[in-house]
Design brief:
The chain is an alpha+beta fold. The chain has nine helices and five strands. The two termini are 30 Å apart.
């Protein structure tokens, strides 16, 4: 599918053709140019996929389900410790995690996990690893379960980072991932970050992203000993929350759980339903 630059080229070819293409030679050259533009668009998308795939190395992170994680990693590994901390947070029956869908996904083995070699997800090798994982995970995500997400876990760094540091890492990571995205964004999703119709997309599929960090000491719903990025396909919400009433009910329930979980901090006013006026998922 052609991007905006190529679409502009198509339109230019079309309008020039209306005014000056009176001879068969000119028309033939215009047709050749249009075909070249279309071929260049397709080759550009294929080259991005090739770039992602060909950069694989022998230490490439894999995607695991919960049983594979528990079998693959011993209790003394950072991977198992990070997974255990994440699982303990979602399965705590006394302190209920606000995202009840994530908790159910953990219990039902709908979640998938990958482990990056360093905490800085914005490093080139980490961005490429996540891109490869998403190219595998996205097409098969429906087979994982109704409450699926891809949980990206990282090892602890010797460097003590602030919330702003993790914010910078996360957005640099997204920007780098966007630069190698092999497909254009869906036309109904805005690319303007602060609008109410923006959400992150990759390989043509919209998603919801959440971040947990060691730096969130007071906001416990966003705290984890290891920096983690949770990628959730947008289709999960579309299947679970099919009406405005269901969306509003779920939103109120999550807000109430956050108020209880993060007490005495109130829930953020930016927690809203997708598309709500005055809000943005970038917040």
């Amino acid at each position: 599918m052609a991007g905006p630059d190529y679409l502009a080229s198509y339109l230019l070819v079309f309008f020039v053709g209306l005014f000056v293409a009176r001879s068969s030679t000119v028309r033939f050259k215009l047709i050749q140019l249009a075909r070249y533009v279309a071929k260049s668009s397709e080759e550009g998308q294929l080259s991005k996929v090739a770039q992602i795939i060909q950069s694989r190395d022998s230490s490439e992170p894999e995607i695991f389900d919960k049983y594979q994680v528990e079998k693959q990693f011993g209790d003394d590994t950072w991977e198992r410790q990070a997974y255990n901390a994440f699982g303990a947070k979602l399965s705590n029956k006394e302190k209920i995690f606000p995202c009840i869908y994530a908790s159910k996904g953990f219990k039902d083995n709908d979640l998938r996990y990958m482990f990056l070699p360093t905490e800085d997800a914005s490093e080139r090798r980490n961005v490429l690893s996540v891109a490869r994982a998403l190219l595998t995970y996205i097409p098969s995500s429906h087979e994982c379960g109704l409450n699926t997400s891809l949980v990206i876990l990282t090892p602890n760094s010797q460097k003590k980072r602030t919330v702003d540091d993790y914010h910078q890492i996360f957005w640099t990571f997204l920007k780098s991932l966007r630069q190698i995205d092999p497909k254009p964004w869906p036309p109904n999703i805005s690319e303007e970050t602060m609008t109410n119709r923006w959400c992150f997309c990759f390989n043509g599929r919209p998603s919801f992203l959440a971040v947990l960090t060691p730096a969130f000491e007071k906001r416990q719903s966003r705290h984890l000993p290891n920096f983690a990025i949770v990628y959730q396909p947008r289709w999960v919400f579309e299947l679970l929350l099919t009406t405005n009433a269901k969306r509003e009910s779920a939103l109120n329930h999550v807000r109430a759980l956050i108020d209880k979980y993060d007490y005495p901090l109130p829930h953020s006013p930016d927690i809203s339903n997708f598309g709500q006026e005055g809000c943005s998922e970038a917040k």
